[in-house]
Inverse folding.
C-alpha cells in the first residue's frame, strides 16, 4: 500500500526540535489539490517559507546551541529552532509528479544541516495515497 500524499497544513516533527510545526505549501506552477488542499512536492523544503521553526533546538551541533551551552558552563541550553534545510525532501513519490516535481508523500524525510531529521507526523489528509 502507498503512503498518503502530503498537503498544506501537514504536521511535521524534527528529531532535535521540541515542538511540532506545520508545513506551508504554495503552488509551484499550476496548483494541484488532494482532498481539496494544495498538494506538496519534494521542493517544499525552504526554511521559514515552507518549514517553520520547531520550537527550541536541543542539538549541540547547532552553533547557537553550542554557544549557549558554553555560556551556561556546559549545561545543554536549547535555543530557538531555525531550520537549515538545503536539499529537497527524500525520496518523494515514485509514481506521482506535480508540475514536473515528485509529490511529497508521508514517508519522506528532510535533513537539517544541524543533524536533525524532519518527518511528517500527519500528512494533512488521508484519502489520497501514492507509492
Amino acid at each position: 500500500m502507498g503512503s498518503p500524499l502530503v498537503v498544506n497544513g501537514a504536521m511535521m516533527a524534527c528529531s532535535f526540535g521540541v515542538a511540532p510545526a506545520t508545513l506551508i505549501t504554495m503552488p509551484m506552477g499550476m496548483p494541484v489539490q488532494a482532498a481539496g488542499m494544495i498538494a506538496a512536492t519534494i521542493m517544499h523544503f525552504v526554511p521559514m517559507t515552507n518549514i517553520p521553526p520547531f520550537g527550541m533546538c536541543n542539538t549541540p551541533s547547532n552553533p547557537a546551541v553550542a554557544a549557549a551551552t558554553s555560556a551556561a558552563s556546559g549545561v545543554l541550553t536549547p535555543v530557538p529552532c531555525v531550520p537549515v534545510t538545503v536539499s529537497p525532501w527524500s525520496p518523494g513519490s515514485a509514481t506521482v509528479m506535480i508540475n514536473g516535481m515528485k509529490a511529497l508523500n508521508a514517508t519522506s524525510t528532510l535533513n537539517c544541516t544541524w543533524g536533525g531529521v524532519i518527518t511528517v507526523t500527519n500528512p494533512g489528509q488521508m484519502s489520497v495515497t501514492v507509492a
About this structure: Residues 1-131 form one domain. The helical segments are 63-71. The radius of gyration is 16 Å. The chain is about 5% helix and 25% strand.
